[in-house]
């Protein structure tokens, strides 16, 4: 994905060489970039710089990344947070995501993967910056709340639109029912999990996906969109 003019990224890390490497790489990609060496500087930049995406290291002296993430989400919930850590520990990842982090990368990481994850966060959280987004046979126009499949507009209810958009934007990733419910129906949804199955069935009908090649079911894990 090419960088979009006007997209602002804040880098937060206490290791100067990492900040320099990421700053140079992201500027070369066309992003507007600011850096912060610690949590306090990050929170100051949050108000002044108003970034779309924050790349946030976990292991920092003083205020760690978890506390910074918590404070960011309390005041700027729309800001996308991608957490970086040297710890390949499931508990750390769960803690970060529970505090509101939108994605997680374990150091060392591939710069191309970071770019892909930044792109995914922009598509998910700032679709107006993108206008129409194309993924394989899908065209998503969030301003018109319209999705086309192979150039043909789909007749979708508002919930079907949000569900298909979420799945297409995260294509190739296994999405559990719980994750889908949280992102599409909301954390306070009090209904049954089988509502997801009902909507998936409806989407498959509208996509003529009788063989489930487009929206795949992974038994015991969830669903995955494969672009075909």
UniProtKB/TrEMBL annotation:
Coiled-coil segments: none
PROSITE patterns (alphabetical): OMPR_PHOB, RESPONSE_REGULATORY
A Pfam family the protein falls into: Response_reg
Alphabetically ordered keywords of this record: DNA-binding, Phosphoprotein, Transcription, Transcription regulation, Two-component regulatory system
Modified residues (4-aspartylphosphate): 57
SMART domains linked: REC, Trans_reg_C
Domain Response regulatory: 8-122
DNA-binding region (UniProt annotation): 130-227
Cytoplasm keyword on record: no
Annotated OmpR/PhoB-type domain residues: 130-227
Entries under SUPFAM superfamilies matching the protein: C-terminal effector domain of the bipartite response regulators, CheY-like
PANTHER family the record matches: REGULATOR OF RPOS (PTHR48111), TWO-COMPONENT RESPONSE REGULATOR ORR33 (PTHR48111:SF1)
Name of protein: Response regulator transcription factor
Species, as recorded: Paenibacillus sepulcri
Taxonomic lineage: Bacteria, Bacillati, Bacillota, Bacilli, Bacillales
């Amino acid at each position: 994905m090419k960088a979009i003019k006007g997209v602002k990224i804040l880098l937060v890390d206490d290791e100067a060489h990492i900040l320099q490497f990421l700053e140079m790489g992201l500027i070369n990609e066309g992003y507007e970039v600011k850096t912060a060496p610690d949590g306090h500087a990050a929170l100051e930049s949050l108000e002044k710089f108003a970034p779309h995406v924050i790349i946030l290291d976990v292991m920092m002296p003083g205020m760690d990344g978890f506390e910074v993430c918590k404070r960011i989400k309390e005041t700027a919930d729309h800001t996308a947070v991608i957490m970086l850590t040297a710890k390949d520990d499931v508990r750390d990842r769960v803690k970060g995501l529970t505090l509101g982090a939108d994605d997680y990368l374990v150091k060392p990481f591939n710069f191309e993967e970071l770019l892909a994850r930044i792109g995914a966060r922009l598509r998910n959280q700032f679709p107006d910056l993108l206008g129409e987004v194309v993924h394989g046979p899908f065209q998503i126009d969030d301003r018109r709340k319209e999705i086309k499949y192979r150039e043909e507009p789909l007749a979708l209810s508002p919930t079907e639109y949000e569900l298909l958009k979420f799945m297409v934007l995260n294509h190739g990733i296994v999405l559990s029912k719980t994750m889908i419910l949280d992102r599409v129906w909301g954390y306070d949804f009090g209904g049954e999990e089988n509502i997801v199955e009902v909507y998936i069935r409806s989407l498959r009908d509208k996509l003529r996906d009788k063989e489930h090649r487009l929206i795949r079911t992974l038994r015991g894990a969830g669903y995955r969109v494969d672009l075909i």
